[in-house]
Design a protein that fits this description.
- Chains A, B: Pfam families: polyprenyl_synt (PF00348).
- Chains A, B: This is Polyprenyl synthetase family protein.
- Chains A, B: Its cofactor is Mg(2+).
- The structure is a homodimer of 338-residue chains.
- By secondary structure, the first copy, chain A, is mainly α.
- Chain A has one domain: Farnesyl Diphosphate Synthase (Orthogonal Bundle), CATH 1.10.600.
- Chain A is 73% helix and 1% strand.
- Chain A contains 17 helices and 2 strands.
- Chain A has a two-stranded antiparallel ribbon.
- In chain A, strand 1 and strand 2 form a beta hairpin.
- In chain A, helix 5 packs parallel to helix 8, helix 10 runs antiparallel to helix 16 and helix 16 packs antiparallel against helix 17.
- The longest helix of chain A has 27 residues.
- The radius of gyration of chain A is 20 Å and the shape is globular.
- Chains A and B meet through helix 5, helix 7 and helix 8 of A and helix 5, helix 6 and helix 7 of B.
């Protein structure tokens, strides 16, 4: 499509921000990866096949990295954060497996989605297995506050997904309604991933701050994702440009374009997103309309706003390597569109 | 179909056995029902709609009843068993919602399945929501052993379902393989439901006994279900006769008939169950073959064997109303075919 998405210059070279974080928690992450591998194991061969198809498909491990870094930020001295980080990744993977069934997606992270290879049935059931394993690992850590945070997140994520389902194909969706959806379906797991480390220390103030950082980072992450869907390059995203459009998803760029559009344009959005006439030529028109109304730019501005709030949330923590790494993640997330 | 399934006479009038159990834990069950109702609540309207469609559809609440009675059996004096019983019912309901998607079922408990009314997407996501709520309730009880038992069961159930998926449409499935599937997909939750009450008391020996009772009862329950699929009346089952057959499920009656059948008969099973030519006239032939080889009768005999083992497991407990009620449940389960 050749669409140029305007974003601020990142503080570092694009893409390097996660490397600082990865380096900081390298030994922990390697323990998490071993644990993930061993806990997808089962005598039922199809389970590790389906699980590892997705887990080894080059995901960034962003959420478990956040758990590890936030535990470091709170100076947690134990090893419970390893299992919690693996549990967070399993919860995320389970959500993706179920999402692919719900959205009827054909691709995920640049390769065929699990449901295309093994069927919807295996995707649903292996998702359930991973969710069960996630809870088992939390139980092994033995932290009831940690269990509380993550089980609540599991509920809220599902609530957000259902909310999105109920709002789907309705171009009258408001910005507030949309923010409620992504706060639940995306930001809740980011928030929980960041909160569980400090929660192991029982440090309430630090817990709240880490949670706020995660929640705001999660919203920024989702908004950038929404923008990328109308302009990212396939190789970068691992999904096709226009997937949200073809699925009739109402995201923030669309909400802005509908609000600012003429009656004729609203007819266009209704026809494509509500009535399903969203082919490739309609996608070109959609991108033109989004650009005309500055909808992508405005969405990215909102993302930077949430990024700034995430940044402020870390004020309660003294300077440390962990804090600097977490601040860099904000750049990584908001500059992904670059 | 008018097939008469031979079973032993129940000790009491058919169907009354659960009433004794219900009466014994009536006040607890009413608390569980209120809790279930309140915990399906959500601002997202579709969630209680989908959840209650199934939860209020006349399920027997057999699993939470077992949790309540087993807690009484172990003389547990607290109120944690109420939340655990509700959690067990939510886990069961989540499994049913996901099963309907996996099996593409059109009916459940005599009415349209949730996925036929609200779609596969809502069934998957509301199942996830209920699973999350189940874990939240367990966390509220604060018993790590209880959490361990139920989270492990969640994993094992999913494993059993995937095992069944992998074995589906394969008439070479052995009795042992089939028992491994139902031990996981059905009996694991019965076992966990019975074990969590005594686990709240930390009484290891009683815990093991209650678990063994539940596991054996669960296998008996599933075997009777399998037999009923080839001969129960629709009104009684809430599903159509022959559902398993039409879905190509290999159950114990079929395994017996295949093993005892002629080469020509094995061709019949291959054509219907493996290759999907399972229409109503094929169902009549299937039932004839099952009867010719005594396959239904043999399956019910196996169910009674597991029932007897469940009975023996309770030997460690002194006589009590709770024990007598749990013994009656075995009759209820094995005499359902009557």
């Amino acid at each position: 499509m050749g669409v140029v998405i305007p974003v601020e210059e990142p503080r570092h070279d694009g893409g390097s921000e996660l490397e600082a974080l990865s380096a900081l928690v390298a030994s922990d992450l390697s323990l998490v990866n071993s644990l993930i591998l061993s806990r997808t194991g089962s005598d039922v061969q199809m389970i590790p096949e389906v699980a590892n198809h997705l887990i080894e498909s080059g995901g960034k491990r962003l959420r478990p990295l956040l758990t590890l870094a936030a535990a470091k930020l709170a100076r947690y001295p134990g090893d419970g954060h390893i299992r919690l980080a693996a549990a967070v990744e399993f919860m995320h993977t389970a959500t993706l497996l179920h999402d692919d069934v719900v959205d009827e997606s054909e691709m995920r992270r640049g390769k065929a989605s699990a449901r295309m290879v093994w069927g919807n049935q295996a995707s649903v059931l292996v998702g359930d297995f991973l969710l069960g394993q996630a809870f088992r690992m939390m139980v092994e850590v033995g932290s009831l506050p940690g269990l509380d945070i993550l089980s609540t997140a599991a509920t809220v994520i599902a609530e957000g997904e259902v909310m999105q389902l109920a709002a789907a194909k309705n171009i009258a969706t408001t910005e507030d309604e949309y923010l409620a959806v992504i706060s639940a379906k995306t930001a809740a797991l980011f928030a929980a991933a960041c909160e569980v480390g400090p929660a192991l220390m029982g440090a309430t103030e630090e817990q709240d701050a880490a949670r706020s950082y995660g929640a705001n980072l999660g919203i920024a992450f989702q908004l950038v994702d929404d923008a990328l869907d109308y302009g990212g390059r396939e190789a970068k995203l691992g999904k096709k440009v226009g997937d949200d459009f073809r699925e009739g998803k109402i995201t923030l760029p669309v909400i802005f374009a509908v609000r600012r559009g003429s009656p004729g344009e609203r007819e266009f959005w209704k026809r494509t997103l509500e009535q399903g006439h969203a082919d490739d030529s309609a996608l070109e028109t959609a991108i033109e309309l989004l650009q005309r109304h500055g909808a992508i730019e405005e969405t990215l501005a909102r993302a930077r706003h949430y990024g700034a709030t995430a940044c402020e949330a870390l004020d309660v923590f003294p300077d440390s390597q962990a804090k600097r790494a977490l601040l860099d993640v904000i750049d990584f997330v908001t500059a992904r569109a670059h």
